[in-house]
Amino acid sequence: MAVESRSRPNKIIAKESKRSRADDDVSARTSLAETSRRCGWARNELAIRYHDEEWGVPLHDDRLWFEALVLDGAQAGLSWDTILRKRENYRKAFRGFEPAKVAKFGDRDVARLLADEGIVRNRLKIGSAITNAKAFIAVQKEFGSFDAYIWQFAGGSPRVNSWREIKHVPARTAESDAMSKELIGRGFKFVGSTICYALMQATGLVNDHMVDCFRYEEVKTRRR
Ligand SMILES: [Zn+2]
Fold first, then answer.
1. 166 CA distance to ligand 1 centroid (A)?
2. Average pLDDT for residues 17-37, to the nearest whole number?
3. Which residues contact 19 (CB under 8 A, 6 or more apart)?
4. Rounded to the nearest 5°, which phi and psi values hold at 159?
5. What are the two backbone dihedrals, phi and then psi, of residue 207, each rounded to the nearest 5 degrees?
6. How far is the CA of 46 from the centre of ligand 1 (A)?
7. Which residues have C-beta under 5 Å from ligand 1, the single-atom ion?
8. I need a labelling partner for 78 at 20 to 30 A (CA). Which of 6, 9, 109, 192 fits?
9. C-alpha 14 – ligand 1 centre gap (Å)
C-alpha cells in the first residue's frame, strides 16, 4: 500500500490568490463575505467550484463512481488540487472512465499513460486503475450496480455530521475502515481507509460540510 493521503479538507493546499487593484472593489468584498460561509479548505477557483457544485452531493451514477475511485486513488500522497487540475486530462486518458474500456487496457495503454504528462505518471497508480476497473465490473455483476454496493457502507442514506471546525473532521472512521477492508478483499487497490473516507466525503456518503457552510443544507436535497 502506498502512502495514504489524509481526508480532503486537511489535504487541500490553499494558494494565496493574486489580486489586482481592480479586484479590490465591492465585488471582491462580496466574494470574501461569501467565502466566510464556505468550508475553509476551498480557497482557489478550481477548488471553490468543486466544493460548491460537487463535493458532498450524494452520488448515484456508476461511471462517476469509477471516476471518483480512480481519482481518489491517484491523489494518494498528493494534493487534491493537483488532481483537480488534471481531471480533464484524466477523463481523456481513461476513455471517459468507462470501466469496460479501462478493464481492457493492455501494455500499450499503460505505456501511453506513463508517457502522458496530463496525469499522475505512477506505474502502481495506473496499474491499480485497470485492476480496479475489473473489480468494479465484478461488483456490478454481483450487486446490479456499484452504487447499490457502496451505499451499504452508509446504511443507504447519507450520514449528516455537524462539524463546526475543520480540525474535528476525522481522516478515517469505522465505516471507512469497513469499506476499505471490503474493497481490498475484492481485489481493489489504493483503497486504504483514509482514501475511502475522502471518497465518502466527496460522494456524499457523509455530509462533512461545516454547519455554517452554505452547502451544508443544499447537499441534503441534491443527488448526482
Ligand atoms: Zn462546505
1. 10
2. 47
3. 28
4. -85, 120
5. -100, 100
6. 14
7. 39, 209, 213, 215
8. 109
9. 15
Confidence of residue 155 (pLDDT cuts 50, 70, 90): confident
pLDDT (tens digit, 9 = 90+) per residue, 45-90?
A: 999 999 999 999 999 999 999 999 999 999 999 999 999 999 999 9
DSSP one-letter string for 12-78: ----PPP--GGGSSHHHHHHHHHHTTS-TT--SHHHHHHHHHTTTPPP--HHHHHHHHHHHHHHTTS
Structural domains of the chain ordered from first start: 62-221 (1.10.340.30)
Quote the ligand 1 centre to 221 CA distance (angstroms).
Answer: 14
Cα(133) to ligand 1 centroid in Å equals 30
**Cβ–Cβ under 8 Å, residues 199 and 5:** no
CA of 150 to the centre of ligand 1 (A): 23
More confident residue, 85 or 9: 85
Q: What is the pTM of this model?
A: 0.84
Which amino acid, one-letter code, is at 133? A
